[in-house]
Each structure stands twice: as structure tokens, then as C-alpha cells.
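Student: Hello, beginner here. Can you help me understand the protein record under this note? Any guidance would be welcome.
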Amino acid sequence: MSNAFVSHKQVHNVILPGSTIGILGGGQLGRMVAIAGRRMGYRFVTLDPTPDSPAGQVSDRQIVAAYSDLDAARELAACSDVITYEFENVDARVAALLEQESYVPQGSRLLRTTQHRVREKQAVQASGAEVAPYVPVRSRCDFDAAIRALNCPCVLKTSSGGYDGKGQWLVHNAEDAEKIWPEVEKAAASQDNDADEPLIAEQFVPFSKELSVIVARSARGEVQSFPVAENIHRDHILHMSILPARISESTARSAQRLAERIAEGLKVVGLLAVEMFLTEDGRLYVNELAPRPHNSGHYTDDACTVSQFEQHLRAVCNLPLARAELTTPVLMINVLGEHMAPLLQAMTHMDARIKVHLYGKHEARSKRKMGHLNVLGSLEEALAAVRELSVWPPESLSVSE
């Protein structure tokens, strides 16, 4: 443990303020966890290979090292009373070492499940939720068989490592398959784990809306889900989240219950983001899981009775969970690298209902997530306020039903 002062506070794995929380990962999610935790009285140390990382800027200390560095992981364990992670692509050896030498309530079992799409689909199905039909793919022969079994269009994905559309290919026909296979083969070969099932083919779901529910489960087994977010993507990157989602109350309740059932089935500790497709006939298909705070939950900082980041800390520290209720309609919109310069110029005349969250990243590259805005008020009011900024192209702000 980090010091004698806090060791007596850990009764039945309750980690009280004054303790040190280690964060594996130094990105924006870790940053916002640390900001929430500082208000609660916790100290933070983060491990990330990038000096002056977003999370490192607001932590007491940053260990600058690769995520695979076992000595650095031991150092993190030695100075932390509890360890959490802000992304799921954690080296399995590091996760196992941290479990042995520190308290990691999220554990490595959930990581192993969500790091691999085939295992994730199987776990979701075991919880009683529906996923799109899928076929594991090990070879070109498997791929051709999957296309015949699933029919086109279908989506081919790497089993691990993909995000924001990376490692994904939409296949409309056999010609598409032939064209993309060399790139697919290269991506599959670059994966260093689970080489027996490096790819997965999924039937394309003709959805009407993309939804997500973030659910928290504490070490004591208490569960609390956040309101349902309606998500709009551009170029495979989350562009906007609309709250409340434009769905019926019964669909919202079903989505929350589904997320809670999966969290219970996987014995989650901390947050689990459950991304779903809603079809025209009202069916919900689970698309992906993320065992951490999530981009689609950023609205909670300004428009909810508790933020996802505070709730995550409550869960991993085994404190009582807070009620997670929407306090105002809100639109969350992502700020990418290409938006930074015009956004900074617009801040001199910005509507007071717009809450700005920037991540402290040093290089504003195109398509890189640099921050987000939470715009309070009805969807119509929020969109009008965003249009006045002249940061995003008008066509990207279309949110038709």
C-alpha cells in the first residue's frame, strides 16, 4: 500500500478518500476520473508512455513507461491502494502482475473477455442478450464460408485491437472480399494474441438508431444504470450523443435492464458501457462492450446527478453508488483535431449553456479526440447554439429521426 496512513481505511475493500488510486493509462478518460476523484479527496498516480499525458497533468505523479513494462507496473502497484484502467487493451502479463501485487477490483477476467470480440459475443449471449449472427474467421476459406452463411452485407473485424472503425471492413459482395483480403490478412497477422480466431464476421444489422447504456456495479454488488444515450457517428467516430434518446420509455427501460443483466452476468466492478443497435421492429442487438468510462457518457459531467467518472470511482472503491438521473436535456458533441482552432476562436462569444471540456493533448491531429462540448437544453436549442459557433459543417449537424 502507498502509506500507513491509508492502510487502515481499507475495511472490506472499501477505499476511502485520502487513498491513492493508480490509473493504468494516461488519456482523457483517466484525466476525467482523476478530476472527479480529486473533488472526493483521492490522490492519483498514472502510468502512461507519453510524458505530460492528459491524466498525468492532473495526477500527483505520472510513471512514464510502456504499458508492457513489468517494472513500471510493479512501481504503480507499490504506490497505489487500488488500481483501475482507462482502456481495455492492457497487456495480459501486466494485468496479472497487478492483480498479484495490488488491489484491482475490475480484475483481468473481464479484460480478457472484452479484449476479444468472439469471447465478448459469447459472454453477451450467455447473459441472455441478443447479438448479430457471427462466425469466427481463421482463414480465407473461413471468410468465404462466413459470407455464404451470413449473406451480404456483413462486417469483417479483427478480434482484438480495433477502435473508432479501425480493423473493420464492410463487405457487400465477393468482389469486396477479394479486394480487402490482403489488408485483412496483414491486420490479422499483427495481432499478438488469440491467433486461432484473429477475425470475426458479423451479419450487418439494419438499425434505426445506435444506443448505449453505461452501467455501474460495485464490489458489493450494487448496480445502477445511467440514462440511455442516442449516438450518431461520423467516419466511425462518435460525433454526437443525444439525451434523452428519442425512443419510447419501454425501449429505454429494456435497454437499461439489458445492460444491467450483462453487468451482473460478467460480475463487473466499475463501469461497463454497452453499445446497442435498435432496429425498426424494436429489437435490441448488443454490438460492443467497454469495461470503463465511455465517450457516450461524457454528458453526465454536466447533465446528470452523478458523473460517470465519480460513479466509476464509487464502484471500484466500494462506496455506495449514487442515483444516476438526467437533470436536463443535453447534446454532447466531440471536438476533433480539425475543430480545435475554430472552437478556440468561438469561445469569446460562446453561449453560456455550452460547457467546454478539453483534454490537454499537445497535438491537434485530424480525427483525434481533443475534447467535447456538453450543450444544455432541448435538442433544438442545443443544435442552434452549436451552429452559431461555425465549428462543424452544417450538414454534420443533421439529426433527423
Remarks:
- Residues 1-11 have pLDDT under 50 and may be disordered.
- The longest strand covers residues 207-217.
